[in-house]
Design goal:
heterotrimer; A mainly beta (91); B alpha+beta (1001); C alpha/beta (417); A: two-stranded antiparallel sheet; globular; B: Gyrase A, domain 2; Elongation Factor Tu (Ef-tu), domain 3; seven-stranded mixed β-sheet; six-stranded mixed β-sheet; elongated
Chain lengths: 91, 1001, 417
C-alpha cells in the first residue's frame, strides 16, 4: 500500500488514488494524418517498463488532480512526483 | 489418568480461579492464565491431534504461534466454532470446548491411522504418479482424497461476532514486547515519539520474563526481575500505547502494517456477546522496530514426532510460566546450551531429568557444570536414533555420533522417558522483515538468516536481528536505538550485564540413524508429514529449487507455514545438493505471519455495509408506493410499481400504456449530471462528443454520443446550454463517475489550455420526468405562469422556473418519444416536487413508472441504452447513428479509430430491429441469431440486445446487433433456442411513431 | 526409456524405499545452437516445447527459464479451467484447451488432477443476467456445455451461497459449465517438463535472457546468463515479463503488467464442491484437494513487477466472499501472494508472429491464462513450427490492434478469470 505524496494535498494512502498508466504519451495533435500503425502505437502500445517508469496518477478520491510519478516498477519504490506539464526528473 | 502435573504456583497463573473446560467431550480443570495446551499438559494429556497424511498421533510441540501439531476445533458444533486453532494460543475460559481434528472416530482410535502403515506407498508427490487409471475414476479418487485431507471443519452458520478496523498513524511501531521491544518502546516514547507496542501474547516480557537462569543478570538482579520493573514503569509513560493479544500479520510496503487485536476470544461466552471480537489495526508507521524474537528449532531424527516430544524452550515455559511439568521423566536432546537451562529449571523444581543427549563433543560453560553438579547424565556426541511409544513417548534409543556426524557407531542405549525436550538452536523470526521487501543474509558459522540492512524506516533488534546473548542484545539495542531515533542516550545505557557465553557449536540438519534413511521417519514438517526422505526424494527426482522441493513435498505449507522446519529443509537440500545454504536462498515468507480471520479483514463491511446504497430523494415515496427496485451501479432505482397482485409483466404493460395514453412519471435522478463552465466549454464539448456543439443556442438541449479513443461508444446523454459559457451534461447512471474521470483526464492532461471547469452535480438535483400527451397539462397546473407553447418552449429546449419559490430547471426532452418534461429540482426538494406532479397529475391518472417501462418505451422508439445495446465493440456507425458523427469536425475523441480497416468494414455487426413471426413470442435478451439452422458449425450473426412485448403495438419487438444488419432489412433469420427455433425478420429500429409526431402531440 | 508412473511403479519403488526413482527432467547446460528456443519455463512455455517435440518433430529445442520452472503465474494462479467464453475465437481457443485437459493426465502420464467439478458464474444485476444468457446461448451454439441457472438452481448446485434476495447484490442467476473445473497447477508444469525432457528438449533453469540478437529483421539467437545460444526461432512465453523481452528486440507490445493477488484459507474438510465466480461483486472461490479455500482477488491498476499488490484489493475480495458466503467469516487466511499479469486492451491473449522473422510471442493472458495452458502450447507450437498461425489462434494476432479487429472479452467478464 503506497504512501503517495500528492503535489496538491500531501501524503495520502494509495486507496485515494487511481493509476493512469505510462506518462508522456501525448495525444497526437493531428490524428487523421497518422497511419493505422501510428495510431495503434498511440492507442495501445506501451513500454511497460520494468524499472523506473514515468506514469500518471490521479488523486481520484481527493483533489481529483492528475500528476506524474517516477516509480521503480520492479520494487514499487516511488522516486519522484511532479506535476502535469513538468519535465520528468533526469535522475 | 488424572495425574496432576501442576508443580508450582506461578505468578502468571491465578490458582484461585479454577476453570472447567471440555476436550473431546471430557471435562478438565485448569486455572485462569492457562492456555488449552498448558491445561491439557497439567492433566497429563499430550495426545491432541492426528497428522495430515499419515494420521500419526501428535501432541503439543511448542508454547506459541509456531505450533504445528496441537491444532483443535474450538467450540465444535456451535456458531462460534473455529477450525485449526492452536491449543498453545487458546486461553481457557469457563465453558470452553475443543476437540481434536482429522481423526475418526476419535483421536485415540483413528481409522486413518492405517495410513501410517501404508506410508511407504505415500512418498512425496505420490498423487502425481497414480490415480490416473482408469481415467473415469479420478472423480472417485478425488472424492476420497478430499475427504481424507482438510483438517478442521468450516463453520456452517452465520458468524454472530462483530469485527472492526482501526487506522493508526504512529511515529514508532514496536513489534514484540520481549526485553528488546520493551526497552525500545520505552525509549522511543520517552523521547516524544508517538509509540505503539504490540505483542501477540497476553503478557509482556517475552521469554525473559519467565527465565530462571541465575547466570543472566542485569544490574545484579536476575534479568526477569529487572524486566518486571521496567514493565511496571511503562504505565506512567505518555505517548505509548500498548496492545497485547495483538499479532502483526503483514508488513507491506511504505511501513503499512496490519495487526490483529484479539479482544474476546479469551472471555466466557456471555462476555463475548455484543463485543468486538477482533479488530484489524491498519498501521502506518513512520518508523518500525522489529523485536519479534527467535523461534527454537527442533532436531530432525527418526520418529521425532511422538506426543511428548516438545521443544526444549516450550518445556521451560510450561514449567516456569504455567507451573506445569510436561513429563515425569524428562530427557533433553540438544545441539546447544539452551536445553541445559530448561533442564536445570525442571531439576530445580523437583521434576526429574533423566539425561541430556548432546550432539556436541563437549561444552564448558557454567550451566554445564551446574547440570553435572545436579547429577544429570550428559551423553556427549550422541544422537537419538529412534523413539518409542505410539500415543505417548515411552523411550528413546541413542548412539554415538561419528566424527563427521553422518553416521552412528557403538552400542545402542535405550532410555525410558515420557517427555523429550529438543533444542536445535534458534531461528530469528525474520518473517515480517522479509515481507517488507528487505533482504536477508546468511551466517554460515551460526547457520542463521538474519536481516542484512537496517534503514531509516526500519530496524530489527534483539534475537530477530541475530543477537542471542543478553549482553549482545542490550549493547546492540542501545547503539541501534540511538542511531535510529536520533537520540543521544537511552535510559538503559551503562547498565551492568552478566551472562555466560556459549562456546561450543555443532549443527547437523538431519541426524543419522542406525537404520537406512528409507526405513526412518525424520519429520521436517510435522503437520504435513513431510520427512527428510521426502526432501531427498524430491532432489533425486530433479526438483532443485527450494520452491520446487517445498511444493513437491508440501514442506512449509501447513497452517504453521513452516515456522519450525523450513530451516532444516533448506539445510538438508544444501547438504544433499552440496551447495552453501547462503547460495540456496530462502523461500518467500508470505503474509500473514499467523492466519488471519476473514471476518477481521472484512471488519464492518458486511451485510448492509458491504457497499454504499445510493438512493434518490424520492426513494421514500417509491417505497410507500410499493415499488420493486433494481440495482444500477450503487443506485437503487424503481424498477416497476406492481399494484395489488400484479405480476411484473402486467405492471409494466399497464405503466407503458399509461405513459403513452395519458401521463407517466419517472424518477430520473440517478442520471449523471456534470456542470461544465468556462470560456472554452463549447470547444471542449466539440472534442468529447461526436457531434458539433458550437452552434447550440443558449437554452437549447442536444443529444451527444461519447466514444472511447478506440472509437467504441462509451456513453450518451443530453447536454443543455445554460449560458454562454455554461452547460449541464447528463450521463448514463452507471457511467457518471467514469465519464467525469475521463473528461477530467483529457482536460488536465491533454488540453490544459482549455478554460473549462467540471463539477459533478448528480446528487444536487432530483429529476422527475413527466411524459405523455397530458404532461403539458400537468406542468401547466404546476407552473401556470410558464408559456408551454411549442414556440416558447419547443422540444429540446430548457427553461429555468420557480415552483413554489424553488428554482428548478425544466428540459423538454424525451427518451420515450412522447411529449416530455424533465423537472430538475434541488435534491432536498425532490420529493416535494415529485408529490406536486403526482397531485397535479391525479386527474390524468398519472402513472409512476420504473426503469423497466422506461426501457420498453425507448425500445419502441429504437433509442439505445449504452451498456445494453452496446458492449464496448459498437461504433456509432454500427448503431446506424451516422447522423450524429460530425464529418466537419477535424477531431473528437475516438474519431481516428473509426477509420481503421476493421471499423470501416461494411459488414460489421449493426444495430437493427427484429420482429418475431409470431407476435406473441418475446425473444430472450442475449439470444443468438443465425441465418441458417442446419449449418455446422453454426455461424452466429449477432444477438438480441433488448426485447419486450409492446402493449402499444400489441406485439413483441426487439433490438439486436446483426452482422451486416444494415443490408438485411426484411431478411428472415432465426433465433435458435434450446428447444425451439424462433423465426424473426430484420426491421427498422424504430417501431413506433416513426415520424416523431408524438413529441409535439 | 523412462519408467512409467503408476500404482505398480509406486509399489515397486516402495520396496526399495523410493531410492530408484528417475529424474523427472535433466539439468543440462545449454547447447550452442537449437532449432528453436522457448523463452519462459512456465506451463505455456513447457507445453509449447512439448508439442513442438511431439507434433512437429522438433526435438533440438530448449526452454530457458530465468528462475525455476512453473515459478511464475503457473504456480500462483487459482487454477480455474473453463471454456465458456463469449466470442467464437475465444471459445474455439479455450475449448481446444479444455479438450486437451480432459486427457492430459493420461497423455503426460502425470496426474495433473484435472477435476471437472463445474464452474458457476453468478449474475447480480439485470445486465449480468443478459450478458450471461448471451454467453450461454453463444456457448451452446459453439458446442460448449453451458446452462443458465435460476437462483434456486444456483443454490441447489452450491448450497452454501447466500442466495437471500435481501443482500446488497442478490444472486439473480448464474451459468454453469460442468466440464469446467480446476487442476493442480504445479503438476501441469512438471508434467509437461517431464514429457518434453523425455523427447529430448533441454530445460535450462536459472538462465535469464539478456538480449535478443538479430540481423536486420531476422533473429539470430539470444544472449543469456549462461552464454549465447544460436537459434532461428524464438518463442517468447514470458507472461508478466513479455514486454521486457519484447523491448530487447526493439518491440513494443499492447500490454500492461499488473499485480494480481490470490489467497488461501487454512485447510478444512470439504465444504464447497465446485468453483464459483462472481464478477459483479468480485469473489472467486474453490476448494483445493488439500482443503484450502482458494480465493482469487482482482488486479491493481498500476504497472508493477514486484509481485506485491495492495491490501485494499484483498480486503475488497474478502468483503465479497463474506457477502456471498457468510459462513466463512471465522475461517482464516493462511497465505496470500501476488503475481504479475500481462493484460491486453481487449482482455484476450496474443499468440502471434511479429514483424521480426523468427520471433513469436505468446502473451497477454491477463488473469486467465492457466486454463489455456495445453491449448496455448499446442497452437503456439503450430505457429512456430509452420511460421503461420493455426486457424484457432489466427484471431489472436498482433495486427488486430492496428486494424481494430479486437476480441473484446470485457463485455462478458470484467476480469477474465
Amino acid at each position: 500500500m503506497f504512501l503517495i505524496n500528492c503535489p496538491y494535498c500531501g501524503e495520502r494512502d494509495q486507496q485515494e488514488f487511481k493509476a493512469g498508466g505510462e506518462a508522456h504519451i501525448e495525444r497526437p495533435k493531428q490524428p487523421t494524418e497518422l497511419s493505422d500503425d501510428e495510431w495503434a502505437e498511440y492507442l495501445f502500445m506501451r513500454k511497460n517498463i520494468k524499472g523506473v517508469q514515468f506514469e500518471r496518477w490521479n488523486h481520484a478520491h481527493g483533489c481529483r488532480k492528475w500528476f506524474n510519478m517516477a516509480r521503480d516498477t520492479s520494487n514499487d519504490e516511488i522516486k519522484a512526483i511532479y506535476k502535469m506539464g513538468e519535465k520528468p526528473p533526469t535522475q | 489418568m488424572t495425574l496432576n502435573l501442576r508443580v508450582k504456583s506461578s505468578e502468571f497463573i491465578d490458582e484461585t480461579n479454577r476453570i472447567s473446560f471440555k476436550f473431546d467431550g471430557k471435562t478438565y480443570y485448569g486455572f485462569k492464565g492457562d492456555t488449552l495446551a498448558s491445561a491439557l499438559i497439567a492433566n497429563n494429556v499430550h495426545l491432541v491431534g492426528r497428522s495430515f497424511k499419515y494420521h500419526r498421533p501428535r501432541g503439543i510441540m511448542t508454547s506459541g504461534s509456531e505450533e504445528p501439531n496441537a491444532i483443535v476445533q474450538v467450540n465444535p458444533n456451535s456458531n462460534i466454532t473455529e477450525p485449526n486453532a492452536r491449543a498453545t494460543e487458546i486461553e481457557i475460559y469457563e465453558g470452553l470446548e475443543a476437540s481434536s481434528q482429522n481423526c475418526w472416530p476419535s483421536v485415540n482410535f483413528d481409522i486413518g491411522g492405517i495410513n501410517n502403515f501404508l506410508a511407504p506407498l505415500f512418498p512425496a508427490g505420490f498423487y502425481y504418479k497414480t490415480f490416473m487409471w482408469p481415467k473415469s475414476f479420478w472423480e472417485k479418487y478425488e472424492f476420497f482424497i478430499r475427504h481424507s485431507a482438510g483438517l478442521g471443519k468450516s463453520p456452517n452458520t452465520r458468524d454472530p461476532d462483530i469485527y472492526d478496523h482501526r487506522n493508526i498513524h504512529c511515529d514508532v511501531l514496536v513489534v514484540g514486547a520481549g526485553i528488546s521491544g520493551i526497552l525500545a518502546a520505552k525509549n522511543a516514547a520517552k523521547n516524544n515519539f508517538k509509540t505503539l507496542l504490540l505483542d501477540e501474547k497476553n503478557e509482556l516480557g517475552g521469554s525473559t520474563i519467565f527465565e530462571a537462569n541465575e547466570d543472566n543478570k542485569i544490574n545484579h538482579n536476575s534479568a526477569s526481575e529487572w524486566l518486571k520493573k521496567e514493565i511496571n514503569e511503562l504505565k506512567n509513560i505518555e505517548n505509548l500505547e500498548i496492545k497485547t493479544r495483538t499479532s502483526v500479520a503483514a508488513y507491506h510496503q511504505y511501513n503499512y502494517l496490519l495487526a490483529r487485536e484479539n479482544l474476546t476470544d479469551h472471555l466466557v461466552k456471555k462476555d463475548k456477546k455484543n463485543k468486538i471480537r477482533q479488530r484489524l489495526l491498519k498501521i502506518r508507521a513512520k518508523k518500525v522496530i522489529l523485536a519479534t524474537g527467535a523461534l527454537e528449532r527442533p532436531l530432525i531424527f527418526n520418529n521425532n514426532d511422538r506426543p511428548g516430544i516438545m521443544l526444549s524452550s516450550a518445556i521451560k515455559k510450561y514449567s516456569n510460566f504455567y507451573g506445569v511439568a510436561c513429563g515425569t521423566k524428562n530427557i533433553f536432546f540438544t545441539n546447544n546450551d539452551s536445553a541445559y537451562e530448561s533442564a536445570l529449571s525442571l531439576h530445580n523444581k523437583g521434576i526429574k531429568v533423566e539425561a541430556i543427549i548432546d550432539i556436541r563433543e563437549n561444552s564448558d560453560t557454567k550451566i554445564i557444570k551446574k547440570i553435572n553438579d545436579a547429577g544429570i547424565k550428559i551423553y556427549w556426541a550422541h544422537t537419538i536414533v529412534d523413539t518409542r511409544g505410539y500415543k505417548r513417548l515411552s523411550g528413546v534409543s541413542i548412539m554415538k555420533l561419528s566424527n563427521d556426524g553422518t553416521s552412528v557407531t557403538g552400542n545402542k542405549i535405550s532410555i525410558s522417558c515420557d517427555c523429550l525436550g529438543i533444542a536445535g538452536g534458534w531461528t530469528p523470526a525474520v518473517h515480517l522483515y522479509t515481507q517488507s521487501g528487505s533482504k536477508l543474509t546468511f551466517d554460515e558459522e551460526r547457520k542463521i538468516f538474519f536481516p542484512k540492512t537496517d534503514t531509516k524506516e526500519q530496524i530489527s533488534v534483539g534475537s530477530c536481528g541475530g543477537d542471542f546473548e543478553l549482553d549482545e542484545i542490550i549493547t546492540n539495542l542501545n547503539y541501534k536505538l540511538k542511531n535510529f531515533l536520533n537520540i543521544n542516550k537511552t535510559d538503559f545505557e551503562g547498565i551492568s550485564l552478566e551472562n555466560d557465553h556459549e562456546t561450543s557449536k555443532r549443527n547437523i540438519w538431519l541426524l543419522p540413524s542406525d537404520k537406512t534413511i528409507g526405513k526412518t521417519k525424520p519429520f521436517v514438517d510435522y503437520q504435513n508429514d513431510a520427512t527428510a526422505k521426502d526432501i531427498k526424494l524430491a532432489l533425486r527426482e530433479g526438483f532443485r529449487s527450494i520452491e520446487h522441493v517445498k511444493r513437491y513435498t508440501t514442506t512449509g505449507m501447513g497452517t504453521d507455514q513452516g515456522k519450525l522446519g523450513n530451516m532444516h529443509a533448506l539445510g538438508i537440500i544444501a547438504d544433499t545438493a552440496g551447495v552453501k545454504m547462503g547460495e540456496l536462498g530462502t523461500t518467500t515468507f508470505r503474509p500473514p505471519y499467523t492466519p488471519l480471520t476473514f471476518g477481521t479483514i472484512v471488519g464492518r463491511n458486511v451485510g448492509e455495509f458491504f457497499d454504499t446504497f445510493r438512493r434518490t430523494p424520492m426513494n421514500d415515496w417509491h417505497i410507500k408506493n410499493k415499488a420493486e427496485f433494481e440495482n444500477v451501479g450503487q443506485w437503487k432505482r424503481s424498477w416497476y410499481y406492481p399494484k395489488e397482485d400484479e405480476t411484473m409483466h402486467q405492471a409494466v404493460q399497464r405503466e407503458s400504456k399509461a405513459a403513452r395514453q395519458s401521463a407517466g412519471i419517472l424518477d430520473a435522478s440517478t442520471l449523471g449530471k456534470i456542470d461544465i463552465q468556462g470560456s472554452d466549454a463549447s470547444e471542449f464539448l466539440n472534442r468529447v462528443y461526436t457531434n458539433a456543439w458550437s452552434k447550440l443556442a443558449i437554452g437549447k438541449c442536444r443529444y451527444g454520443l461519447m466514444l472511447n479513443e478506440d472509437g467504441m461508444v462509451y456513453d450518451d446523454g443530453v447536454t443543455t446550454r445554460l449560458g454562454e459559457n455554461h452547460y449541464i451534461m447528463t450521463t448514463t447512471t452507471g457511467g457518471a463517475a467514469n465519464v467525469l474521470g475521463k473528461l477530467e483526464d483529457y482536460l488536465q492532461t491533454e488540453w490544459p489550455e482549455l478554460d473549462v471547469y467540471l463539477t459533478s452535480v448528480t446528487d444536487h438535483f432530483a429529476t422527475a420526468s413527466l411524459c405523455g400527451p397530458n404532461s403539458k397539462k400537468i406542468l401547466n397546473k404546476i407552473i401556470p405562469d410558464l408559456d408551454l407553447s411549442d414556440d416558447n418552449f419547443p422540444h429540446m429546449s430548457f427553461k429555468e422556473v420557480l415552483i413554489d419559490k424553488i428554482k428548478c430547471r425544466i428540459m423538454r426532452i424525451s427518451f420515450t418519444g412522447e411529449l416530455s418534461y424533465e423537472i430538475n429540482a434541488p435534491a432536498s426538494y425532490g420529493e416535494a416536487i415529485w408529490q406536486k406532479c403526482i397531485e397535479a397529475g391525479k386527474e390524468f391518472n398519472i402513472t409512476p413508472y420504473g426503469t423497466e417501462t422506461m426501457h420498453l418505451l425507448r425500445a419502441e422508439k429504437g433509442f439505445i441504452i449504452v451498456g445494453q445495446d452496446t458492449d464496448g465493440t459498437m461504433t456509432p456507425i454500427d448503431l446506424q447513428m451516422d447522423w450524429i458523427v460530425s464529418k466537419k469536425k477535424y477531431d473528437f475523441i475516438g474519431k481516428r479509430s473509426l477509420y481503421r480497416s476493421d471499423t470501416m468494414k461494411e459488414d460489421r455487426k449493426q444495430l437493427v430491429g427484429l420482429l418475431t413471426e409470431d407476435p406473441n413470442i418475446v425473444l430472450e435478451e442475449g439470444a443468438q441469431i443465425v441465418s441458417e439452422l442446419n449449418q455446422k458449425p453454426v455461424e452466429m450473426l449477432g444477438h438480441v440486445t433488448s426485447s419486450y412485448f409492446s402493449p402499444n403495438l400489441n406485439k413483441s419487438i426487439a433490438l439486436a446487433v446483426v452482422k451486416d444488419g444494415k443490408n438485411m432489412m426484411g431478411r428472415k433469420l432465426f433465433v435458435p433456442m434450446e428447444n425451439k427455433n424462433i423465426s424473426v425478420t430484420v426491421a427498422n429500429t424504430v417501431f413506433y411513431d416513426e415520424k416523431n409526431e408524438r413529441l409535439n402531440a | 526409456m523412462r519408467n512409467k508412473y503408476s500404482i505398480f511403479s509406486l509399489f515397486k519403488n516402495a520396496l526399495s524405499y523410493h531410492e530408484n526413482w528417475q529424474r523427472a527432467w535433466k539439468d543440462p547446460a545449454p547447447k550452442k545452437e537449437y532449432d528453436a528456443v522457448i523463452v519462459g519455463g512456465g506451463g505455456h512455455g513447457l507445453a509449447t516445447a512439448y508439442y513442438l517435440a511431439k507434433k512437429h518433430n522438433m526435438q533440438n529445442i530448449a526452454v530457458v527459464e530465468k528462475g525455476w520452472i512453473g515459478g511464475g503465474n503457473t504456480g500462483r494462479n487459482t487454477t480455474i479451467i473453463r471454456s465458456n467464453y463469449l466470442w467464437d475465437a475465444s471459445a474455439g481457443l479455450y475449448d481446444h484447451a479444455l479438450k486437451i485437459w480432459e486427457g492430459l493426465s493420461q497423455e503426460l502420464n502425470y496426474n495433473v488432477m484435472f477435476s471437472q467439478r463445474g464452474v458457476m458464474n453468478l449474475a447480480h444485476n439485470l445486465q449480468d443476467v443478459r450478458d450471461l444468457k448471451r454467453r450461454t446461448h453463444a456457448n451452446r451454439l459453439n458446442g460448449i456445455d453451458a446452462v443458465y441457472l435460476n437462483t434456486e438452481e444456483v443454490k441447489k448446485f452450491c448450497p452454501i451461497i447466500n442466495t437471500s434476495q435481501d443482500i446488497r447484490y442478490p444472486v439473480l442467476g448464474g451459468t454453469l459449465q460442468r466440464r469446467a473445473g480446476t487442476a493442480r497447477h504445479d503438476a501441469v508444469a512438471w508434467g509437461y517438463a517431464r514429457g518434453a525432457d523425455e523427447m529430448g528438449v533441454d530445460i535450462i533453469q536459472n538462465c535469464e535472457v539478456k538480449s535478443i540478437k538479430r540481423s536486420g529483421d531476422i533473429v539470430e539467437g539470444i544472449d543469456t546468463t549462461k552464454g549465447f545460444i544460436k537459434t532461428k526461432k524464438i518463442g517468447v512465453v514470458a507472461a508478466g515479463h513479455s514486454s521486457v523481452v519484447a523491448n530487447m528486440a526493439g518491440l513494443k507490445l499492447p500490454l500492461e503488467s499488473k499485480p494480481l493477488q490470490a489467497l488461501v484459507s487454512e485447510p478444512v474438510k470439504p465444504i464447497i464442491d465446485t468453483v464459483v465466480m462472481s464478477n459483479a461483486v468480485h469473489a472467486y472461490v474453490s476448494q483445493s484437494d488439500k482443503g484450502e479455500l482458494v480465493i482469487g482477488a482482482g488486479t491493481d491498476d498500476y504497472i508493477s513487477y514486484s509481485q506485491k499488490g495492495s491490501h485494499q484489493i484483498v480486503e475488497g475480495t474478502l468483503n465479497a466472499i463474506l457477502e456471498l458466503y457468510p459462513i466463512f467469516s471465522r475461517m482464516r487466511m493462511l497465505r496470500q501472494w501476488g503475481g504479475i499479469v500481462d493484460i491486453c486492451p481487449d482482455a484476450s491473449p496474443i499468440l502471434s508472429k511479429t514483424s521480426i522473422k523468427g520471433l513469436y510471442f505468446n502473451c497477454g493472458w491477463g488473469t486467465g491464462g492457466f486454463k489455456a495452458t495445453p491449448g496455448s502450447g499446442d497452437l503456439f507450437a503450430h505457429t512456430i513450427a509452420n511460421d503461420e498461425p493455426h486457424k484457432l489462434n489466427a484471431a489472436f494476432n498482433l495486427n488486430r490492434f492496428v486494424s481494430g479487429d479486437l476480441v473484446d472479452e470485457h463485455g462478458a467478464a470484467a476480469v477474465a478469470h
